[in-house]
Amino acid sequence: MTEIGATPELQATPGPESGSPTSPRRRRLSRIRGVIAWILIVLSALLIPLSVVSVWAINLTTNTDKYVETMAPLARNRVITDHIAVRATDKLFEVIPVQEKLDSSLPKRAAFIAPAITQELHSFVQKQLTTLLSSTWFHQLWDKINRRTHATMVAVLTGKPNPRVKKASGIVLDVTPVLEKGIAKLDARGITIFDGAKEKLTKANTLSLDLANGKQVAKARSLFRVLSDLGWAVPLGTLLIVVVAGAVAVDRRKTLLRVFVGAALVTVLILSGVLIGRDFFASHEAKTIDPAVSQAVFQTVLRFLTHWLRVELLISLLLAVALWLVGPASWARWIRAHVIRAARWLVQQGKELTGPERHQQSSKGAPAAAWVFGHRSGLRITGLAVAGVIIIFGGNLSVSGVWFTALGLVIYLIVLQVVIVWARRRALHDEASTQRATSEIPVQSGKGSPRT
Q: Does the structure show a pLDDT above 70 at 284?
């Protein structure tokens, strides 16, 4: 009640304060933060896999030991060694006209066998050189050549001036020591017809191996030039952008989840591009190089890049799944509940297996059968997920690798279906046994006498 003569107080309607969640200023600030967060999400998703590419390119162009380690498998690749053996044999027979020498040294009646002897000698020399190229000597020579030519390779790839590089447009290795060592090996076997070849192996007449032609190098030069100029700014800047995105975002968990999902998608696109580029470089761009050699070189040089991209993809997926699982989604809550239930079931089973009452169990397979039957869908999904992980991260995306993985998945699903059928029958049997036991329990009558 209001006293007589008193002025009633005006009731002011409280308006939205500037700090309340519903204030226009707060909503406007949230929208701005959301737009900035989305921009940073897109940048982070693009830069995370590009950081892997940047670190790979930096190691390849600045670390000679890493470059030698990258190129080392080519010396053990049969495609490369067989190619060098054929080239070296042809070079020896080009420098030394074997058939002409045989024609001049053999009697006229026996001159007809000169082509056959030349062919047999050609096959023998090629086998000897193939054996030489599979030895430790060639592996060590290959590492020395790559260590010596690393600076030249960097100059060719980045386009930067180098005293050793004038008009070089491709990547070529001088493997003339293979000829010299091969001639010495043939001498030891009593074949001295190629001794005069050493004098003719001048700088203008050497044995070389083309790893990449000018057209292939031109495709990669722009990328290597940009990455070499930026250096470590790309990975460090990426880390800073991810941190800023998490700090600016209204919902940090959801923002980081989007970052890692986007990074995984971009990584898959880059890996697909690498696979498509390998075939393109080998078939379309390698016009002056054997396509098999070009493909082997491309795959060997990029093997560290594809490995670390797969590692980054796995880490991004694991982080994305972890961030999703801790969220409020219904499926995430369902998975968390079932994981906790499975963990409790495992603890209970462990206690039963180690407890004194384990010998008193009448049906040992009942818990396992019930668990398999209750989680049959999850077991099938797990098999599909494992097969997908093997295909993506197993390092073998060939047709045969996918085929064998699919075959293993089919076998797993068949075995799992057999186990599920057994589990269903076991569950029905246990249920029937429980019902019979329940029906046979004696019921007490009113006078205390048992009545069944």
A: no
